């Protein structure tokens, strides 16, 4: 039984990983928290839903969701962050600005969906269960795990093996230095946000399929969980986010299974608080969480 | 009675940033600390002002050991400082910037500050008067209400000085105070520093400008690679071949 | 005339209640504490007051004091971990705090009535009391910001290194600001409970957080007028322009983006600064200080 829960947790963790890694990508590159990430995630779910509802195959829905979310994230960067980054107050400003963007997007989908809860048509993913070693795994779970792994691998290859990826890492280290060697930071930011959004959108589709509860507020809890995950993994660290997502997925599944319901959320965030207290840099963070701060 | 750095050292892991630094800053005199870029002056400054932990040795202000003191206690021990890149509070007026310098002397209870009781208001008024006196002394009284962020560089420097003086320190650490100034401006500041020293304050002057340092300081320490390579009267130190090598790479300045 | 005013009374009450929380949020931001947890502390105060009155029959004035204390004490407890964090980490921690309070309120059904909340709170708070509270709050904020505390807060907010070099204890001052804001939020949470018969956990969640933040961001984070202007405009706007009331979240969202990008200091602060600039500029020609050796 425990093993089953762990397995479920790992699958969920994989989906969280897509969300958290996207979040961390933006933070790593620009030191900004994008609070609209949950709304982007939700957009993926909606776009996939409407694509499937219009008769398209799931794979098309997936691709459409990823692209739409990616583009949305790029727009958010341009509208909300670009101007702010030049000022001295970007940290606070980014939180406010992205909060606003999140609300605008939420209101849009609330209006489109007419505040209904949407569900994918019944056999969008055929209900097939595999059994092995005493464990059950559904086709959907396999899909989620496979998608998460595939996407993460592609992204890892992209960031660590391609020229473009090198440029992303260069800009992360120092925007000015990278400009001096001829890199156009804005192009890099566009791309980074696109990837971050596409990841979130993909996660949204998977979550939409898994829980079949697509509504305009579905992004909020994930945003909160996303916080907890990246704190655990360390702000700015992608490998940390990956590890933390898996751990988080397992912890969450276990606590739902074994703790009285309703306490899960309180438990998770209290745990996050404790981590912030004891080791604010998380598992693999590179930041100074508590250094003496002064503008400029 | 002096500001004394005794065998001060700083290590970052295996890297030695400072070692065996012994500096004495007597009251009433201007002591210089010079050295080429990367010599470790900033490390020393940060250790003195409590921004960086000390690996070994001690720092004393008169009888008070401030080696492990947190940054906000350094001022209370009687040591004020200015910053290399001017750090005034841009959103506040010039007067407010100086007012905050008096923080060390503000004694009214928290409750009276919270509720705006007469004790707090009287104290604020008294501090304002003192701040205005300082402004008068520095010839900037007419700029009292201006937002400090909009001032010229020279004015901002003076605001910083006034702020440092407001705490009535026994010692002041001046971190590259004339960076970016022309000779006329720096000469005016030199006069000011001399006045301060004559009034009994011990000054530790950290500067690049050798001419300035030679003019003002009675005693100079030269830092290179984290260690003191020379000390003494300006003329002697600046003709020391080791110092010349460190600064200009072997050629005569 | 009286009828006109009476018609607007609920609006005035709403304004006064929200103003208090706006000031609580404003106060922590002024001290450079990156806390967004004001509504969580308000929830603590609200439930303390509500439970004391409904379950234990305590008279409202005593319950109000207890709410202030509970808000302040919880803030004090929180300030210990918060003191070790900076910037974004503080923000995340305080948002997590709101979530924790929310979840605990929903979970502890025996004590807090769970998701249904508490009902039947006697309405002991009306407009006169709220006006009094508002005046007292504004006075308190004025006194603090013009005292040595306010000066210390300003220094810490703009540059911690400078503040420390002048002998300002950052930890003590930020803790004080946070505890004060907690007590203030607690009081206003209770005032809200005693004004509206009922209490549900969800009213102290993210929509409220966003509203309070909007007031302060839009109005101004530094000047005393900021929260007043921000709260007034953002509460009146949906009333004056009816369709906006339904799209409240949308309007707030757009306003937040526009304000922080184009008018980052907020309306009141920007106007005050411009007025000051004009006043000083008018004086300038008489004081030519160019030759003074800048």
From TrEMBL, chain C:
**GO molecular function of the protein, one example?**
branched-chain amino acid transmembrane transporter activity
Q: Which residues form the signal peptide?
A: none
Note the topology in the membrane.
Answer: Multi-pass membrane protein
Keyword field contains Ligase: no
Under the heading CDD domains, the entry gives: TM_PBP1_LivM_like
Is the Cell membrane keyword given for this protein?
A: yes
The record's Pfam families line, in alphabetical order, gives:
BPD_transp_2
According to the record, the segments passing through the membrane are: 34-55, 62-82, 88-108, 129-145, 175-194, 206-237, 249-268
Provide GO CC annotations from the record: plasma membrane
Record's subcellular location: Cell membrane
Give the keywords, sorted.
Cell membrane, Membrane, Transmembrane, Transmembrane helix
What is the protein name for this chain?
A: Branched-chain amino acid ABC transporter permease
